[in-house]
Amino acid sequence: MKKIIALTLSMLFLLCGCGKSDAKHQAMEPQITHMRNICELATTECYYHNVAKFKQENAKGFLWFSKDKNFWIEYSGQVSVGVDASLVTIAVKDDTVSITLPPAKVLGCKVDENTLNAASFIVAENSAAITAEDEITALKEAQTQMLESVSGDSVLLENARQRAQFLLEDYVQNIGNCFGKHYCIEWIDVDENGNVIGSPSILPEVSPETTQP
Questions:
Q1: What is the pTM of this model?
Q2: Taking the alpha carbons of 62, 63, 67, 68 in that order, is the dihedral positive or negative?
């Protein structure tokens, strides 16, 4: 959050300086590059601690005798949630700023390998020998489980979107305040492919308290 505030302040400092030298300079208006940077910095990092189970039946054996592979992995992981900044666009006409904003989604997901050690792998007492390939397979499955869990968390995704929306709104209004101009923000919803959903709307101001995960 501190990085976002610092970036916004530095942008406003430069913009106000430009305004003094040329009140009609393009930099007086919100800039798409700045807004996309804000969206990237607004990404929410989520940390998970979980246990993934691996089981392979009849993995080893001879004739009527067989053994299963059965073990667990205790792991930590990191998931990044936010909006796709490349789909954020703006159009400024007079005092109206139209902003396209996509839904939030999982931008990155990985198991933190630094948290893995010998104690992270718990092998069942009668399990067949576990190979490195088995461990890699189990870690991939753990990553898939993390991705599915976060992707299905509608509250977390909506909070991430509102966080980006609030910071973009704050950026636009601060630019307006810097030059004595009040912007009316028109929000345009787009899907994950950038296609417009429904009609543009002017939403009430988003409270920063609702944007915290």
A1: 0.72
A2: positive
